[in-house]
Design the sequence.
């Protein structure tokens, strides 16, 4: 099972799932039973007959139990005997997580959709008590560098479900494309969602695809994804990048930049000097309007405002930005970014929302309610944030950036990473909300490439997010991964071959010069 549960007690015997198996469940769990059916009923002729009272033979029971508060909101108990399967939890989310364990205990064929078979599946007798180590177990998907179809997003969410992950961070805007339709500013997608070409191969190369690239999500698309995620207990966190990584927005609204120049949506990756002008009110007006529409679409309490990689050159040269600094008594250009962050954070707060941003937004006077996504360096500032009550989600780039190839970031390196920083006093550990994998898509144009990059490393991050540190063991994880691979094959995932995901150090050393070259798959 991945992620490994907190406590497992192995017993003798097995429960046999066949055409006589019945199901009893609390009324409130109807939707979850329907969900379970997708995996179980569709793959067999069996129809789980629903019974209105608990049976102690040949019965699967799903029940809420108010006495299980020690399992918190996401934990569950799963007791499998030769007579019955009993899944209990404090609330439906716990039952849902327990279902994923039950699903992994069923044979991999149970994932196959075939209506003909009459089945006789054995589930080993086992008792599981389980709850997550961290409450944030996320995946970020960049849809700017390459637009991703709704079905790809749902596919990714399906695997998050299997791994008990619960946050989908949707990186919707960047230099290479603005991908969310905003009613008040149609140019953002009319202009900002299309680019003329795309760099391919590698950073230092000179090749382009020779084809335009476009795509954006309508209000209905977003609602569809949010609903799909909600049904699976996944929170969707939207990200609107500011003040940097804004080329696509500025191409749509040149008046928002310091130089007001006409730009094209970026066709290559990088860090661009054209950022939103912090001197003029028009910038804040548009961004606040955008965030209002975003808030109306996403029920999430948290809104991500990016804030990474912000070159300040334009601000130094801009009369309006300089004027802003004088008026606000800002003496360092760096602090103009702090002004920007604080202003957006207080706007979001006024709307009842919590701001999140990459760790570059940190400064001494930041509102400690702002959540920091820690991707690089800056340990001192991050520790201060935590010690002053702030929360952090860990996405360290050498470990959790799934766009890196396996030479740079082998599976073992991702798995063995401990997200709680060394030296952090125990009393602050709850401020580490959890872990998040990132899928940047500069070099990921296809679903095949995406799956190769993401799997199996995502499972390593899922286990770190869910399982207690003492329960983790790499050798054991690899064994469980081999076992899981049959299920992945049936689900049609093109994960990186398990023999390739841990290249030897010697191999890595010799190939490091190719570290940013992606093999053909
Ligand atoms: C980032 O990777 N620029 C957050
Ligand atoms: Zn300016």
Sequence:
């Amino acid at each position: 099972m991945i992620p490994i549960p907190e406590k497992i007690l192995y017993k003798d015997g097995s429960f046999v799932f066949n055409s006589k198996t019945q199901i009893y469940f609390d009324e409130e769990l109807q939707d979850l039973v329907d969900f379970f059916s997708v995996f179980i009923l569709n793959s067999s002729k069996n129809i789980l007959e629903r019974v209105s009272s608990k049976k102690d033979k040949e019965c699967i029971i799903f029940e809420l139990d108010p006495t299980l508060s020690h399992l918190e909101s996401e934990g569950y108990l799963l007791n499998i005997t030769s007579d019955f399967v009993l899944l209990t939890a404090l609330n439906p989310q716990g039952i849902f997580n327990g279902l994923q364990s039950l699903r992994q205990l069923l044979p991999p064929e149970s994932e196959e959709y075939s209506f003909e078979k009459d089945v006789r599946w054995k589930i080993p007798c086992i008792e599981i008590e389980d709850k997550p180590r961290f409450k944030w177990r996320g995946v970020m998907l960049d849809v700017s560098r390459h637009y991703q179809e709704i079905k790809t997003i749902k596919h990714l969410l399906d695997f998050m479900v299997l791994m008990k992950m619960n946050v989908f961070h949707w990186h919707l805007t960047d230099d290479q494309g603005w991908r969310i339709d905003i009613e008040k500013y149609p140019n953002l997608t009319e202009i900002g969602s299309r680019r003329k070409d795309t760099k391919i191969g590698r950073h230092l190369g000179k090749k382009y695809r020779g084809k335009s690239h476009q795509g954006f999500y309508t209000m209905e698309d977003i609602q569809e994804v949010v609903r799909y995620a909600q049904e699976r207990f996944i929170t969707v966190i939207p990200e609107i990048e500011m003040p940097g990584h804004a080329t696509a927005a500025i191409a749509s609204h040149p008046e928002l930049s310091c130089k007001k120049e006409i730009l094209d949506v970026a066709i290559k990756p990088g860090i661009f000097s054209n950022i939103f002008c912090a001197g003029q009110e028009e910038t804040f007006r548009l961004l606040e309007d955008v965030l209002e529409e975003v808030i109306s679409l996403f029920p999430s309490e948290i809104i991500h405002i990016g804030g990474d990689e912000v070159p300040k050159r334009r601000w130094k040269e801009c009369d309006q930005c300089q004027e802003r600094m004088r008026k606000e008594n800002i003496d360092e250009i760096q602090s103009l970014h702090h002004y920007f962050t604080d202003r957006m954070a207080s706007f979001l707060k006024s709307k009842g929302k919590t701001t999140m941003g990459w760790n570059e937004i940190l400064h001494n006077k930041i509102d400690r309610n702002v959540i920091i996504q820690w991707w690089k360096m800056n340990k001192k500032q991050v520790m201060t944030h935590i010690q002053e009550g702030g929360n952090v989600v860990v996405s360290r780039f050498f470990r959790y950036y799934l766009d890196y190839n396996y030479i740079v970031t082998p599976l073992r390196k991702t798995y063995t990473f401990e997200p709680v920083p060394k030296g952090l006093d125990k009393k602050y550990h709850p401020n580490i909300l959890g872990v998040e994998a990132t899928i940047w898509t500069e070099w990921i144009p296809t679903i095949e490439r995406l799956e190769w990059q993401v799997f199996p490393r995502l499972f390593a991050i899922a286990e770190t997010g869910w399982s207690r540190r003492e329960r983790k063991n790499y050798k054991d994880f690899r064994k469980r991964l081999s076992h899981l691979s049959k299920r992945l094959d049936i689900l049609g995932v093109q994960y990186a071959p398990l023999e390739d995901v841990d290249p030897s150090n010697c191999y890595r050393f010799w190939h490091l010069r190719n570290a940013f070259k992606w093999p053909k798959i």
User: Anything to note?
Assistant: The mean pLDDT is 94.
